[in-house]
Amino acid sequence: DRMDENTEILSNNFELYKVAVIEERPISNYIATATAIKHESPQVLLLKNGACVFNESHLMIKPHDLLKK
After folding, report:
1. Within 13 Å and on the Cβ side, how many CA atoms surround 10?
2. Are 59 and 65 in contact (CB under 8 A)?
3. How many CB atoms lie within 10 A of CB 44?
4. Which of 8, 48, 57, 66 could join 40 via S-S bond, C-beta 3.0 to 4.6 A?
């Protein structure tokens, strides 16, 4: 919900993608494998040049922290 509430601000700075984990399991599994980060839901990953530079889940998700990266 926090991400959805801040979509406008974040979309001005990042390309945003939302993965519905259950419905899009192959994509979710690919992301977990490619980043070597265990999947949690909800979760935010910030990728730069193919590497994950920010990862938070659950109550630790603070959209404005992304703007600091």
Report:
1. 18
2. no
3. 19
4. 57
